TrEMBL record:
Signal peptide: none annotated. The lineage of its organism: Bacteria, Bacillati, Bacillota, Bacilli, Lactobacillales. This is DUF998 domain-containing protein. The chain crosses the membrane at residues 49-69, 89-106, 118-142, 154-175, 187-206, 226-247, 259-280, 292-312, 319-337, 343-364. Keywords: Membrane, Transmembrane, Transmembrane helix.
Length: 390
């Protein structure tokens, strides 16, 4: 029998919370080996997800049935008031968000950095809840379109509602158990671009682009709150990500002062994004405040790009080249708009927004790469020949 002994560094040993004779599970994921300190923990998570789904499914059946009996409803449609779509979305979103929140708060000690803070956990819960709401609404839209005009008795419909709510609850709990940095960034991108696209598609004004990009958040459109809320909430998610990254990198005055300056600039940029939504581009005082904040946002991004070589000396030359190229694109687009009048105001704002946000996402990935080095350990494997015991 060949026995292989792995020598764990003390820091890794303590980080995993290991004790003598602990059982470990090593899994090969895309040629990367992942160590799980407690194989039974995954099974416990799976059991909780199933149990929560069954419990919420049964509760949804009882609530839906009780509602139909109270309303003296005999048959239930797929859409409209007191319908399959309405009740499923309400109950599915509620139980899904509760399950996600309980899961996230329960395992907050396993999360790293500032994500553990209650305000950040709450922000993530709202973000994932909104995504879950949209997904569930789209799914119900497809079902109601495929079976247009269908009506069922209250018992059958209550059972169907319970099934959908159980599925939603299970999905949200599983997502909560697997929250990672990459997924949080994906949520940020989905929230920002999804909200902006939805504002474009549903603003009720076909000629909105003849005004400016920020027109989507003004009182002149029926759903300007979607655009403004998107910016405010995206800023909160971005601040959550920054708190996690810079806490991991020890970006403080006494730690790494250059990263601390970058942290301040990046945080002010995130606050500016939220402030643009907080002060919509309505005529009067809000218009001036909105424009000043927008200009400040672009200036902050340009300052970070100009200083990134000194604030982030470990950045690769490829990232520096891309950074300077995007900065050049911002300057050229400004010249095409303000000097040559080639670009419209809307086109200029959308290009500037796209360039700036692209660079911020790239910077987040660079910072993530630096933060991940904190989790890299060197281990030694020894092979000892021992006689077989028969």
């Amino acid at each position: 029998m060949v026995k292989r002994v792995v020598d764990f560094p003390e820091e890794l040993f303590n980080d995993l919370g290991l004790a003598q004779n602990n059982q470990l599970e090593i899994q090969n994921v895309n040629n990367q080996y992942v160590i799980k300190k407690d194989p039974a923990h995954e099974k416990g998570n799976e059991k909780f997800a199933f149990r929560y789904a069954m419990m919420t499914g049964v509760l949804a059946v009882l609530i839906a049935l009780g509602n139909f009996l109270f309303q003296q409803t005999k048959t239930v449609g797929l859409t409209g008031a007191n319908s399959l779509t309405q009740i499923t979305i309400y109950l599915g979103t509620f139980f899904g968000v509760v399950g996600f929140m309980v899961t996230l708060f329960h395992q907050r000690q396993e999360l790293r950095g500032g994500v553990r803070r209650w305000i950040n956990l709450t922000t993530l819960t709202i973000a994932y809840g909104l995504i879950g709401y949209v997904v569930l609404a789209l799914m119900m839209r497809l079902i109601s379109s495929a079976f247009a005009g269908a009506c069922l008795d209250i018992y059958t419909m209550s059972t169907i509602i319970g099934s959908f709510v159980g599925i939603m609850s299970y999905a949200m709990v599983v997502v909560g158990q697997r929250v990672q940095f990459e997924r949080i960034v994906s949520i940020l991108i989905a929230t920002l671009f999804g909200g902006v696209v939805m504002s474009m598609a549903t603003n009720g004004s076909a000629g909105w682009w003849q005004h400016n990009f920020s027109y989507l958040g003004t009182k002149n459109v029926g759903n300007g709150w979607i655009f403004n809320f998107t910016l405010i909430f995206s800023a909160l998610i971005l601040l959550t990500i920054l708190d996690y990254l810079f806490s991991t990198l020890n970006a403080t005055i006494r730690g790494d002062w250059r990263l601390f300056i970058l942290r301040l600039l990046f945080s002010f940029t995130a606050i500016a994004v939220g402030a643009i939504g907080l002060f919509p581009n309505n005529p009067g005082l809000f218009h001036r405040i909105h424009d000043d904040i927008a200009q400040c946002l672009v200036s902050l991004v340009l300052v970070m790009i100009a200083a990134i070589r000194w604030l982030l000396p470990k950045a690769s030359w490829e990232f520096l080249i891309v950074s300077y190229a995007l900065a050049g694109g911002l300057v050229i687009s400004d010249i095409l708009f303000s000097k040559l009048h080639y670009l419209s105001l809307t086109a200029f704002e959308m290009i500037a927004f796209g360039f700036a946000f692209t660079w911020l996402i790239l910077l987040l990935q660079i910072l993530r790469g630096l933060a991940s080095t904190e989790d890299v350990f060197q281990v030694t494997v020894e092979t000892n020949e021992e006689p077989d015991e028969r």
